[in-house]
Amino acid sequence: MADIRAWLERYSLEKYHDVFASNAIELDVLATLTENDLVELGLNLGDRKRMMRAIEALRSDQGGVSHAENALTSSQIGPQAPPPTALEGVPERRYLTLVFVDLVGSTELSSHLDLEEYRSVLHDYQALCFDVVTRHQGHIAQFIGDGVVAYFGYPTVEENDAERAVAAGLEICGSIGRIKHGKGEVIGVRVGISSGEAVVDNHSTLGGLVVGEVPNLAARIQELADPGTVAISEHTKLLIGSNFRCEWKGKQSLKGFENPIGIWKVLSAEEPMLRFQARPGVQGSPFVNRVDEIATIKKHWQAALNGEGQAVMVSGEAGIGKSRLVEEATRGFEEQQYLRLGFQCSPNHERSAHFPVLSWISHMADFRRTDSDQRKLRKLRQLFQEWSEVPEDYLPLFAYAMSLPVEAEEDLLKLPFDRLKQQFQDAMVQTVAALARHRPVLLLFEDLHWIDPSTEEIIALLIERFRSMPVMIMCTFRPSYHPPWEGREGVVPLTISRLDRDHVHQMLDALLQSKQVTQTMKDRIANRTDGVPLFAEEMARMIQDGFFDQTDASAMQMQQALPSTLKELFWAMFDRLSTARDIVPVCAAIDRNILPAMVSSVSGHSYEATLRMLDELVEAQILVRRGVNMGGAYAFRHALIRDAAYDLMLPSRARAVHSRIAEVLDTSFSDLVGQNPELLAQHYARADMPKQARDAWRRAAVISGERFANEETIHHLDEALTENDKIAPSPDRDREEISLRKMLNVALSTRAFGSKEVLANLDRFRHLLDRSSASVTDAFLAVHVQFGAQLTLGDPMGALALCNYLEEVARRAENPTMEALAAHNIGMSNFMLGRLEVAISAFDRAIVLRGATGPDDLLNYHEADIYLVDQAMRCWAMALQSGDGGTFRAELAELAGRIGREPHDFTRCYGLNILATIYQILGDTGALLDMVNQALEISGQREFHYWDAWGRILHGWAQASEGHHAEGIAEIAAGIDAYVETGSTQIVLYAQTLLADAHLMAGEIAEGLKVIELVRAGEKSWSVRYQLPFTDRVEAALRNAQSEVAMK
């Protein structure tokens, strides 16, 4: 029985061990238990559901047949059995959309055809309906003669049930013509659709019979539909919004219905890109003031319509009405045919790469949680077919970013990380540009204070590239966020202030029309809410609901009764709840995407009870339903309500809830975790479970890396290290830290070479290696990377001190690659120290050693192939010695050809910049420009910021040499600034000398000497000396020029 105990403990069901033991239930019979068996054993409803989910998982592990595998395929025509998400044997109240399809003229058809032919036609018709309904995630409930009944919203609830039902109806009408009978004539159908609450009788042998008004109404509406058309109820029309073109058929008297029913005829689906335009919703609070703000937004929209791209930044504190302002301002845009695309940032996804963008793609492609990867890929292909303007070449990038399998995946993986990221972001920008060629585009980015760095980069690209297109970008955020594009051309700041007293009174008058509230009371509300619209709205609503009784209370008592903060007000709101108060903190801990199944599993309430409580929270205006139907996910109506709900929990309670959420996510919501792995990590971290949090953050870092999101990868690894530090010291903890720091070292490669982050990570990495039994490769790599950081920081003496260790490790390992790199490092550090003969000798040795190994081996340790690089460095040292290059001109020309043919981009860019530097020393401006232009093209495409800055410096000097003094000086200065931003200093003194030389060419002697003073000051701080002869020559020329000017 030990095995059964362990299994029960795994699912927190160990309290039933004695019950199982007394009934001789062990693992061999566990998979055969049914829910009725669990009833006999005395399990309560919640635990029965938990036990059945666990047993289902066991069946899958054992290779048994699950409920899902019993689902009918398209070749099996018949009602579908509901999956285990339905409560077996328990009638349920559900909100669904029902589709009734009827064959036109079936009586005449049956009389004209023989029985076999009629059966064949009927079978083809049913097969077509089955295929279409299941492809739209519907459920075939019954075949009644020549009628077909389908449910959308049962047995599983999805967003946009009504939309999918109508789309299925249209497709059935459009496809039925393929079915012909013996005489070559086509058959036709009528489709009726209605939506609303109904009771699902799970006792039914039909696997979930829906009873109530909804099925009767759908059948009656079908009777009124013209052959080949879809007719829908008024309520269904409300749910589908503007996503379908419909024609009003008026109110019709229907048999069995007391009042006339409004009927709409569906003409066609609108273009898919309009799917998420605003739909009719609940009536909001009165909108007051904001006249100037709305005028500003409309003015810039008009400019966008004229082809002048605009970016409006709406800033305001929480609850001030940013989203409401955007909604009101854009309400009048409907007069123009435009495309509105919405992107929502999330507090739980601040480090989820491209989260709002990937969510938008998921919505546009209509992804479902239940979709397989292949199904999602098919939907994505369909979306690209509908986006006829968007090149299909982008599809592999979109699929890869969403972790979907794609044929080009191997080719994409060969691309460097930064190149992949650039291609995806370019594809996203070009997609919007393609859509904007046919109509104006409004891009809405909500809640940028929760934005992830990768999406932030995309917005910056959009702002930069859409200045001459009919596009307006609107962003909302709190004042704590400062957009990096602030101050750019075309970026308009729009700050929303609090309402003044008069406007608060105006708002209260509108909200409290039916409530007798004294002027004194209104004044106190205005004072207490301090001009925050959300606070005033919530206070008025609670008064409207009778929460405060002002009849028997004195003015002082009334004032004391009013909450002084929004949090107090929301807590008072929670206190008024009946049963639903219990799940409010659970919903707050889950945060944005509140799924009923998850709340049920975490809270222990039955699914049915959970739905009732969630509905109570919606009724209390604490939550809102996400999606157009009455099912699916829920979310807090405002972030401030969520914060107040979370604060209801004591820390110990919060940890327990997060622990349970993490467990449920890990076991039952693998699709969500796969898409956003940081969700699981966050819950483990908040549950104070450091080991699990560390491992989850590591998985999140790996996935972020695959999605070319470097900043997020670094963040996730930092979080993993933080969690690892919370674990008690041990060799295992050190091994985990070594692994994480190796990953972090790779991720930090895009940061400044000599940044404090890089050095701190390397210092800690080496410290761990020194006290552990690390591999020789790890030990060498750690010190080699630290050497590079020391060198780029302008400390060649410190870097040289590390070379003895590297040589010793390489000799012990008898590894020619390590030996070659050790020799290269000796050459580089001596070169920087100005010891040119020693450097040349070391480079010669490194070139020979590199010949004994291959480039692939070397690139495992170093970012470039030193075979070509060291030949170039050798020539640079010789140029500094001679100044004319007479002894190695031929060697230099041959080397330039080999570097130009080098396939490894970083090595080629490295070599080209060194060659350009040599030609600068030799005074060959033409050759310099030839080399540096090639290098700049590579560094621009691949975002090699270090080499791009180096190339700009040299290009600026060449410009000045050709007489373009002002342009050249400005480019050198900008290049130096960009170079310093990388954290490197090794060519700063050389670059400053080039700047001084450019001032000399321009005749700006005083400016040149000022720069030389900076160089001399830098020489006192850094031990870099290779540039000294050049600096001395330039200073001498400046002093001579100064003397000549003085003499004149």
From TrEMBL:
It is an enzyme of class 4 (lyase). GO terms for biological process: cyclic nucleotide biosynthetic process; intracellular signal transduction. GO terms for cellular component: cytoplasm. It holds the Pfam family SAM_1. Its EC number is 4.6.1.1. Keywords: ATP-binding, Lyase, Nucleotide-binding. InterPro entries: A/G_cyclase, AAA_16, Nucleotide_cyclase, P-loop_NTPase, SAM, SAM/pointed_sf, TPR-like_helical_dom_sf. Residues 1-61 form the SAM domain. CDD domains: CHD, SAM_superfamily. GO terms for molecular function: adenylate cyclase activity; ATP binding. Residues 97-222 form the Guanylate cyclase domain. Transmembrane segments: none annotated. It comes from the Bacteria. This is Adenylate cyclase 1. It comes from Ruegeria arenilitoris.
